[in-house]
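INPUT
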Amino acid sequence: MTSKATRLYPLPPREITAEGGIYEDLELPPALPPARRGDSPPGSPRPYVIINMVASIDGRVAVGGKSSRLGSAVDRRTMRNLRSKADAVMIGAGTLRSERLSLDSDRTFGAAQPLAVIVTKTGDVPLESNLIGHERQRVLVLTTGVEGENGTSRSCGEARLLRAPTTPSGDADLGSALRILQTEHAVDILLVEGGPSLNHSLVSQNLADELFLTLAPKLLGGPQSAALALLEGSPLQSPRAELVSVYLSDGELYLRYRLR
Amino acid sequence: MTSKATRLYPLPPREITAEGGIYEDLELPPALPPARRGDSPPGSPRPYVIINMVASIDGRVAVGGKSSRLGSAVDRRTMRNLRSKADAVMIGAGTLRSERLSLDSDRTFGAAQPLAVIVTKTGDVPLESNLIGHERQRVLVLTTGVEGENGTSRSCGEARLLRAPTTPSGDADLGSALRILQTEHAVDILLVEGGPSLNHSLVSQNLADELFLTLAPKLLGGPQSAALALLEGSPLQSPRAELVSVYLSDGELYLRYRLR
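OUTPUT
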């Protein structure tokens, strides 16, 4: 069966086959000159950062703790498709702990796999049990906890470790960590796939350039205490996003927003 | 300034002026014959129920406890526009307690105002302080608490009271209450504007026919404990919704879903 999708916006509408997912012809911006990147310290280069998530109409990003049950087959192909545009795919360790998942792109094209980056504060990173394909993918564990606080080495197997620099106040300096990803690991395009705390850290520090959101035509419900939203953290100061494009496939909306 | 909006879906796209909000030409289904309504007990008539909400991209339906800050001027006109199609506008008392609001439609047309229905379990309904225009609108307070448990009469002024019938297990029977609204108060079209618990009660009991969701192009963030979502309650059993139409105005998406 051939999957179809329609680009609704920008106009005019255009029907596409969605065999390979949405965004097959996506071209992300080339590395911007440092002066165009507004993060701190000003002028420093860093990867172009996109976030990709799937949510229900009622704003839930996981069903029973797992996001994998929420989207359609087209959404899953779109996810792999975005990975194939990225040099690295980043997730929070909490997301990895909650479900077995893979971070690879579509292998049928024989393309190089993106670097998998797992962000952890506690060091509890169940790579061998939960990261499908960890043995054939380069994996980097980015630790953001205080030195000596975590026991990362116990559970990360062959993965390389990168300790995030700290700010003068002692917090993890994500911006500096991203710059190291670019300069030492050749990550020009970074795809982030949650969870909510990692998304929030990047967005609130102006480190995320775009959000790709699949809106699944489902109402999940569930108590507030279990309601994982797209972002989790303090209220954001500059909440405005700019809608770039809208695709539709079988009731599922694929929304792309520019965040900066 | 003339506000513009584009219907993106169904195709072909069509540009409209949005002076009076989206859905100016909306025609809701006429009252269905009882046999077509699937609620319990089967075959009973009830109003056609639509829910209208505004949410941020990250699924929040309120900023600092207030939904009024989330949408644009076009969204607020759309809200009044939907009210003008309804015989009654229903909200939960918690929503009324959280902010001063009005439930009237656009008075410039001189149309009859919809009946305001406030649903309360506890009887704490601050009509006089928080319902703007309560003195010129018919108000009905629908109590769903156990008899004798609430002190509704103390705070509802001139409002009429309707005690929801109870199911054999002693819970409030919302379906029966809706049927009373139709038979005794001539409510054929009921518009519900939250909050999350009331939305959930209606959707989970198959008493909601459509959802109108405005997706504001904003990322709000905020801690999970303060994250009001569209629905709040137990996980839903049949979560699928059907996308009916998509409008776009200045980055704001107006989504219409059929729920049954």
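end of record. Chain A touches chain B through 51 residues (CB under 8 Å).
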